[in-house]
Amino acid sequence: MPASATPQKPSNPTRAFGRFQLRQLLGKSAGTMAWLAFDPNLSEEVVLTLPRVQPVEAAGLEAWVRDARFAARLNHPNLAPVLEIGVQDHWPFVVVACRGAMTLGNWLAAHPNPPPDQVAGWVCGMLQGLAFAHEAGVAHLDLQLHSVLVDDRGSASVMALAAAGTRFVAQSGRTALNERAMPMDPNQLRDQRAAGERDVLACGVLLHHLLAGQPALDQADVALVIERMAPVGRELVRLPWTTPLPVPEALRAIANRCTSGQERLRYHNARTLLGALSGWRDAHADDEGGPLALLLDRLHTVGHLPALPGLAARVARITGAEGQRTDDIAEQVLRDMALTFELLRTLNSAQVQGTQIAGNGPVLTLRRIISLIGVNGVRLASNALRAWPGPLDAHGAAALQTAMDKVRLAAHTAQALRPAGYDPQVVYLITVLQNLGRLMVRYHFADEAEQIQALMQPAPPPPAAEPGTAAQPGLKEEVAAFAVLGVDIESLGLAVARQWGLPDEVLHMIRRLPPDAAVRRPDNDADTLRIVSSAANEAVDVIGLVPQARLGAALAQVALRYARVLHINARDLHEALTAGRDAMRQGTAAPNGSPRASAEQATEGPAEEQSEARAPEPADATAHTQ
Questions:
Q1: Which ranges constitute the DSSP H helices of 476-569?
Q2: Candidates 3.30.565.10, 1.20.1600.10, 1.10.10.10, 1.10.510.10; correct CATH number of 15-172+186-285?
Q3: Does residue 436 surpass a pLDDT of 90?
């Protein structure tokens, strides 16, 4: 039943609470109860919230009123304004105006199974109000369906902060009123964080309820659900695969992270969860919204990647020397990912595309790019780059450098794995582009990249676990990105590639093979390039995530996954990784050795002789050597 401003005739005899006429019990939990009541002083309906447990002592009642009044001073669009705080017959209460709004519980009763985007909007509103309250030192501690109001515009607001009574008011919140207050007690800080985390967990439980169409663990009281979850209980709360309405994978990942059985994987801050949900909402509403729009905007301000130190001097040296071969210039340029990307972007601009012959395939070698834009184009591209490390601090720059080294190792490994006849520069560039989204996140979303990396890492078993208990697994990269950004990393990379004007054939190649999908025989050269690059990237990812004791077995599993298509075994993969490390130590952009010959090619002759003989012409649409 909606809580409206028009008095309604009750079907049962009216119950009185002081001057208030109680019309309907809107909901109750172990901590609070909410009533729809009529206030004759205002001549309108209000929501009356009381604690379930009456304060016994006068000091307890005084503390409840003091804390509630402090919380009521907060002014935010997603915090319902408090009309009155009082005491009636030793029962404290909080009064909030309805004015056309209804509790979330009543809204669900009238409109079951709301669409996921509407659910996310409500929870975002709740989180905006809670984040503001937490930063003022106030927590709710009993977030329930009956403590959220939804107005006629669909906006959600949290009401009756501190009404449960078992809470604290952080001293930092009061320092705004008294700047001479003593520093906050460390124990108070810890309690403040714990209370805020409980509110965020309660939001996650409500999000689960709204998406699943039924309460988590068949328990309507959010507080009782939380008591059955880790670390107190052992119940798992995960969205069922069958829901009243389909739940997009990104939103499912966010909801499941909220209530993860591993405390370390949950959201610990209202703004962190708000960022993930807002990112999903924006990306869901518009393919160019949310993190995608923010990333594309940042490309215009700080560029795609910063140039490595000393780039200007290197470019001046390699482009100023007479008789410098295009291959030599390309070899030097390929060592700097920022310049490589800038040349690729420049090539696919409308001006350069207009100079190319219709029908040509994508250009995926730097020597071909340089021949098209000229040496002066290389100089202009290098001048357009931002100097290292751009806006990053020392820690962010070190993390970006580590990520770039990892990508370079994968690219060199792919070159060593490539079948005979495939140009090493093409393989190198495709492998790097398969990491475009990861590099963009490291540069433009440094804090979020740290969160994603932390979520992917396995954790040791809890101290109380039995001996021999396996480590707690981390999240997969896609799920971790969904949970942090609301969009997967590959989508970010593809958005940048589209903005550069890369054709569909290249967009296909730079999509990594899904890690749980079967590796099928390639239908064309583009498929082969995609598979080779995916194998190398997958192997290098394993090195960063698997403990040393299990690394050999994990790499053998990768080799087995690609064995039938690439004709490799664990030894081949190990040798390719070793060749990649050697190439990085030597500072080369492409290995001098020959590509690995497939089983069929090995009977036809030495791979060294086949490599150039089978390479197509630059205008070939397969782009082996362009």
A1: 477-485, 489-500, 504-509, 525-545, 548-566
A2: 1.10.510.10
A3: yes
Give dist(CA 488, CA 491) in Å, integer: 6
CA distance 493 to 304: 11
- The domain ranges of the chain are 15-172+186-285, 358-375+392-458+474-613
- State the fold for domain 358-375+392-458+474-613: Hypothetical protein af1432 (1.10.3210)
Q: How far, CA to CA in Å, does 110 sit from each of 20, 107, 123, 206?
A: 26, 5, 19, 17
**CA 20 from chain center: how many Å?**
47
Where does the pLDDT of residue 499 fall: very low under 50, low under 70, confident under 90, or very high at 90 and above?
confident
pLDDT at 191 over 90: no
Residue indicated by tokens 């798992």? 236
Nearest alpha carbon to residue 265 among 456, 2, 447: 456
- For residue 352, report the phi and psi dihedrals to the nearest 5 degrees: -75, -40
DSSP state of 145: G
Percent of the chain with pLDDT over 70: 84
pTM assigned to the model: 0.78
Run of H or E residues at 340: helix 337-347
Nearest to 10 by CA among 26, 25, 1, 23: 23
* Cβ–Cβ under 8 Å, residues 539 and 558: yes
**Coil, strand or helix at 104:** helix
Q: Is 275 exposed, middle or buried (0-12, 13-18, 19+ CB in 10 A)?
A: buried
Cα angle 542-546-551, degrees, rounded to a multiple of 5? 80
